[in-house]
Design brief:
The complex is a heterodimer of chains A (about 350) and B (about 290). Chain A folds into two domains: about 30 residues, no CATH class; about 240 residues, MetI-like (MetI-like fold). In chain A, about 70% of the residues lie in helices and about 5% in strands. Chain A has 15 helices and three strands. A two-stranded antiparallel sheet of chain A has the order 2-3. The radius of gyration of chain A is 25 Å and the shape is globular. Chain B has about 290 residues and is an all-alpha fold. Chain B has 14 helices and one strand. The chains are: A mainly alpha (about 350), B mainly alpha (about 290). At the A-B interface, helix 1, helix 2, strand 1, helix 3 and helix 5 of A face helix 1, helix 4, strand 1, helix 5 and helix 6 of B. Strand 1 of chain A pairs parallel with strand 1 of chain B, so a sheet runs across the interface.
Chain lengths: ~350, ~290
């Protein structure tokens, strides 16, 4: 399992031995494509070509089409009633559909904030404590990791029936609010908990949707961080302890900076998770005040009216928001890489 | 290395409290699924109350009303081929990228990795239209509309296309760690490229394949979005979405939903308990590369 967790270390060391032993071998000990015989070459082309064709035609072609279609007024039926309308869809998003768009963007931002401010530090803290091998570490690890293997859709059903049920849910039982007329409807209340500007804020039911997402995200972060912590050179921490740093100082000054690659992964995963959120909202019937970008994109497919142009414009916004993070992740991952 | 005894006690108490909190939804699901709604909903303590009756009725009803045998069948019809194809496709690309140097190595790997990071919803509008326009031959099984949309083949294809990004990335990292001399020796012996892939590299990649198979099984089994948008037709939806049938418009039997959820998560629970190590190493292998 150790070799599985750190392929990069093993890769660089074996590369070094190969190139040292045989300076004439091609870069990093890999064979050149041009040295292959005709038959092998065709096999290799097929091995790369077929999966790449599938991936490109179902992921990247649609991604580019999202861009193109966002400049049209297409309704998705026949191609001859597709017209180029320039930026009209975008103008409409920021005027007619302004409320929908800002609410969605704000809700995506709330998810991100809560995952970042609550779930991520909690996950890191749990990983940090568990890394000390306290009693019962394995059990704790299983408990916190368990929600991660469930789908957010099922998580939605579980929380709805167990935690939020008005008549018998955990919350109303604890608050003693289970009688008819006195119940709190956790998923049906679009009043705001936090109000930013007039109509915009954080609605109660959206907070109720974020809570299970936090529940699930902590375990994810914990696992990623535990793997990272195992790789931190213990002598670094000992040195810090000898220098008299306390627990917090040695984490802040030694452990955290040395885990930069894991930190980047966590950042990117959290951002993308926040942009992708869809299942749990759809499963809970998308109550008022809980729209996010992904719901707006999908609305015109699942709903009655079909407006491919506007739906694509929402899609482009999603793409733009994650684009920077994806590029950043790729750069940090492939920078010193010899792939 | 915890500095003092006091800190250690604080850490233990904190972990214990958090673990109890974290298990609450799962325990609640299990307890309420065995109890009749009439009993738990009338007691001020909900399902915390002392049970008078324990019953399997909720499971029976969920099983029937959710049409679960059918949904389960469909789910496995999607998940099993999808996992096999994902691993097959990504291992071929990973093999090529990690064992041979040519111009587009990094670009290709980046393409796959980035593709997996896009939010699925950002490409759904065009994808839906494409799926609407690709006809399937009549003999294709489980194609409802005669197009890729609504068919299980279409669903399998999008899973393979989307998930191959992550798997290619992980597998190429793993294959890079295998000694290059293996291929050289094989080549001297006259083994074809395909044999080098299938008989030499693949068997050595088994640990990574195992970890990914576990992870991908769970991810594809858990899928909701692709299925809801691209299949839509009620009977052929995977199991996760069948839970929607259990909620009424005005009244929902929460214990029934809990029982249904429990049925749906059982395969994931079993796999998780049996293969926890693979699960965790699969996740961290993708992340620790950096």
């Amino acid at each position: 399992m150790t070799s599985l967790q750190h392929p990069s270390d093993a890769a660089s060391s074996s590369d070094a031995t190969v190139s040292e032993a045989d300076p004439s071998s091609p870069r990093k000990g890999r064979r050149r494509y041009s040295l292959l015989t005709g038959n092998d070459r065709r096999v290799l082309q097929a091995m790369v070509g077929v999966p790449t064709f599938l991936h490109v035609s179902l992921i990247w072609v649609p991604a580019i089409c999202t861009f193109l279609l966002s400049f049209t007024n297409w309704n998705g039926f026949r191609f001859d009633n597709m017209e180029f309308v320039g930026l009209r869809n975008y103008k409409q998003l920021f005027t007619v559909f302004e409320k929908d768009l800002y609410e969605a963007l704000l809700n995506n931002a709330w998810v991100l904030i809560f995952l970042f401010v609550i779930a991520t530090p909690l996950g890191i803290l749990v990983a940090y404590i568990l890394d000390k091998n306290l009693r019962g570490t394995a059990v704790y690890q299983s408990v916190f990791y368990f929600p991660v293997v469930l789908s957010l859709a099922v998580v939605g059903f579980i929380w709805k029936s167990v935690i939020y049920s008005p008549r018998q849910g955990v919350l109303n039982v604890l608050l003693n609010r289970t009688e008819e007329g006195n119940q709190i409807s956790w998923l049906g209340d679009s009043d705001q908990v936090i109000t930013l500007v007039s109509d915009y804020g954080l609605s109660k039911n959206f907070l109720a949707i974020i809570a299970p997402m936090i529940w699930r995200h902590v375990g994810y972060i914990m696992v990623l961080y535990l793997a990272g912590l195992k790789a931190v050179d213990p002598s670094l921490r000992e040195a810090a302890a000898i220098d008299g740093s306390n627990e917090w100082q040695s984490f802040k000054n030694v452990v955290f900076p040395s885990l930069k690659p894991v930190n980047i992964v966590i950042l990117v995963i959290t951002v993308i998770e926040a942009l992708r959120v869809f299942d749990i909202i759809d499963v809970l019937n998308n109550p008022i005040g809980t729209d996010v970008l992904s719901i707006l994109v999908t609305e015109s497919i699942l709903g009655e009216s079909s407006n491919v142009g506007r739906g694509s414009a929402y899609g482009v916004m999603l793409l733009m928001l994650c684009f920077g993070f994806v590029v950043w992740y790729l750069r940090s991952t492939f920078r010193e890489d010899d792939a | 290395m915890i500095s003092s005894r006091r800190n250690q006690i604080i850490a233990q108490v904190f972990l214990f409290a958090m673990a109890v909190l974290w298990m609450l939804p799962i325990l609640g699901m299990i307890i309420s699924s065995f109890r009749p709604y009439a009993e738990t909903s009338t007691d001020p303590n909900g399902f915390f109350s002392w049970p008078d009756t324990l019953t399997l009725d909720n499971f029976r009803n969920a099983w029937a009303r959710g049409n679960m045998p059918r949904h389960w069948f469909v789910t496995f019809l999607v998940v099993i081929p999808a996992v096999i194809l994902v691993l097959f496709f990504s291992s071929m690309v990973a093999f090529a990228v990690s064992r041979y140097s040519w111009k587009f190595n990094i670009a290709l790997l980046m393409l796959f990795t980035a593709g997996n990071l896009l939010p699925p919803q950002s490409i759904i509008q065009p994808l839906f239209q494409i799926y609407n326009r690709i006809p399937l031959p009549e003999f294709a099984p489980y194609s409802n509309s005669g197009e890729l949309r609504g068919s299980l083949i279409g669903l399998i294809l999008i899973h393979v296309a989307f998930q191959s990004g992550f798997c290619t990335f992980v597998l190429s990292n793993y294959m890079k760690t295998l000694p290059k001399e293996l291929n050289e020796a094989a080549m001297v012996d006259g083994a074809s490229l395909w044999r080098q892939y299938w008989q030499i590299v693949m068997p050595l990649t088994r640990p990574a394949l195992g970890a990914l198979a576990t992870l991908e099984f769970a991810w594809i089994y858990n899928d909701y979005f692709w299925a809801v948008v691209l299949v839509q037709k009620g009977n052929d939806l995977p199991i996760t979405s069948s839970l929607r049938n259990l909620s009424g418009e005005f009244f929902t039997d929460d214990n029934l939903v809990a029982a249904g959820s429990l049925i749906v998560v059982i395969p994931t629970i079993l796999i998780y308990l049996a293969l926890r190590r693979q699960f965790i190493s699969g996740l961290s292998v993708g992340a620790s590369k950096g």
